[in-house]
Write a structure and sequence with these properties.
Oligomer: single chain
Distance between the termini: 138 Å
Strand content: over 45%
Radius of gyration: 38 Å
Number of strands: 28
Helix content: 10-25%
């Protein structure tokens, strides 16, 4: 009988025998290693590893830390008990974690002296207390010298379960227009994963939580090298008052909720400014029932609402409006990162009486009859984001009574930039006839020393106004038409003026000047 087996081949039963022996050998190593780790692992972790990790964390955050005792070990990790970063004499912020579960890759630890932990923080409670100087905690992350790194640390992920965060603003001696209250964020669950080894290159995150009756959900990635981020942002009934601790005391939000569903991509330039070419935002956001306070206003800005539609580098304002006392403003339009502003806004009706109330000022008695007169304001905002330009037109909706005169038309066209206010035309048309036209410029570059220029022209039927003010003129005398040119300039502290007048079609024509 002849065998067909080649010289280098082995019978199947011999191969199976080798595999069984190898498997038995590896199994024995694993069993022995497991037994050793179970017996002595807790001691190794408690006496050798935890103290060094504790020191490493203290050096990293520059704060004392109390790592919890080991509550159990396994081949793959350890569970620590209550862990605390206590407050210090200069920082009242603190962190308490009920338990810390750390999963460690044993192979990299044994053969490469690299810890690659996956950390789970169970029911962490973070209490941030604002210091008097406005900071929120003293944490720093200094670079360790290369020789200090006896053991490399490459964190794989940090997960939080049922976290709570409170932020308590500093209030002693502060008189904010809206009281600064503690912010509470709870039901926080999330995970942050790190990529790139010891020098982290990229981070992914997925975090959700609740604030009062609202909620938020953030997920995305961040590239630390390119300083770029991509994220999905969703909020439901998120209260806007949570930003108050970060506003100056002269400003505050007393109400308002935000609903949004956005995808965001953004990056920074080398100069740490926003890279507009990399910015892309899509989705919608709606803010409603807002109320805003300012120390400069006697009344709050209320009924703030806006529907925002994001389309890449452009945002469209829809159903946008607010109310200041009884004055209502509406707005619509677009804001584009490259093209700038294209927004129209309107106040459909406003009276001098409303302006007087808001300004808490007393208008001259000659204007008392005009207090109930109503105006409409139409404006348009254009220009680049860094140089907005406001153009507007204010005009009366009904005749105004000023002293004995009824004014049929009062209209002003103007434009405003950060550096200059231009009254392009003020036109007044009395019902008795004639016109008054004026223009002016105000330099805003030095707000403490404003300067202005004004020019006006008047053409009025003098005989009609003489009758209006009961000035007796002989029947044989005709005063005629009065024309005047007026120029004025100066600052709030010092002004000059010049006027030149003419009487035409008059029994006694003449001219004159007034300085």
């Amino acid at each position: 009988m002849h065998s067909n087996q080649s010289p280098g081949s082995q019978p199947p039963h011999r191969l199976y025998s080798l595999l069984l022996k190898a498997g038995a050998g590896l199994g024995t190593v694993v069993l022995i290693g497991g037994a050793v780790f179970v017996i002595w692992g807790d001691r190794i972790i408690t006496e050798r590893i935890l103290p060094r990790i504790e020191v490493a964390i203290e050096d990293a955050v520059d704060r004392p830390i109390q790592l919890g005792a080991s509550q159990g070990t396994s081949l793959w990790g350890v569970r620590l008990g209550k862990t605390v970063i206590p407050p210090t004499a200069t920082d009242k912020s603190s962190v308490t974690v009920d338990a810390v579960e750390v999963t460690i890759g044993l192979r990299s630890l044994i053969f490469q002296r690299i810890i690659k932990p996956r950390v789970v923080l169970v029911r962490p409670k973070v209490s941030l207390v604002q210091a008097e100087n406005g900071t929120w905690g003293e944490l720093s992350i200094p670079e360790l010298a290369e020789e200090e790194r006896w053991l490399k640390l490459e964190i794989q992920s940090v997960e939080v379960e049922k976290a709570q965060l409170t932020a308590k603003p500093f209030t002693a001696g502060r008189k904010a227009v809206v009281p600064r209250e503690t912010i509470a964020v709870d039901k926080v669950n999330g995970i942050v994963e790190f990529y790139g080894g010891e020098e982290i290159k990229e981070v992914s995150f997925d975090v959700a939580g609740a604030v009062e009756t609202g909620s938020f959900d953030l997920e995305g990635t961040a590239n630390l090298d390119s300083q770029a981020i991509k994220a999905n942002v969703r909020t439901t009934d998120l209260p806007a008052a949570g930003v108050n601790p970060f506003l100056p005391d002269s400003l505050g939000i007393s109400s308002g909720i935000l609903n949004s569903n956005l995808t965001v991509a953004a990056a920074l330039t080398e100069e740490k400014t926003l890279d507009q070419s990399a910015t892309d935002v899509k989705g919608t956001a709606r803010f409603q029932s807002g109320e805003f306070w300012s120390r400069e206003l006697s009344k709050p800005v209320s009924n703030i609402r806006s529907q925002l539609r994001f389309q890449g580098q452009q945002v469209t304002l829809e159903d946008t409006g607010l109310q200041l006392d009884d004055i209502v403003l509406t707005a619509s339009g677009d804001v584009d990162l490259e093209d700038g502003y294209d927004i129209t806004a309107q106040i459909p009706s406003v009276s001098l009486a409303q302006v007087q109330t808001l300004a808490e000022a007393q208008l001259p008695s000659i204007l008392e009859g005009a207090l109930d007169g109503t105006f409409q304001l139409d404006t348009q905002v254009t220009g680049e984001l860094s140089e907005p330009r406001l153009k507007g037109r204010l005009f009366n909706l009904e005749a105004l009574q000023v002293d004995r005169l009824s004014l049929e038309t009062v209209a002003a066209d103007f434009d405003l930039t950060p550096a200059r206010f231009n009254l392009t035309e003020l036109r007044v048309v009395p019902e008795a006839g004639g016109t008054i036209v004026a223009d002016a410029q105000v330099d805003l570059t030095d707000l403490e020393n404003l300067s202005f220029q004004l020019a006006a022209q008047a053409d009025l039927p003098a005989d009609v106004y003489a009758q209006t003010y009961s000035i007796a003129i002989p029947e044989a005398v005709v005063v005629g038409d009065l024309s005047a040119d007026i120029e004025a300039a100066g600052t709030l502290q010092e002004q000059t003026a010049f006027a030149q007048w003419r009487l035409s079609d008059s029994t006694f024509p003449g001219t004159g000047e007034i300085t």
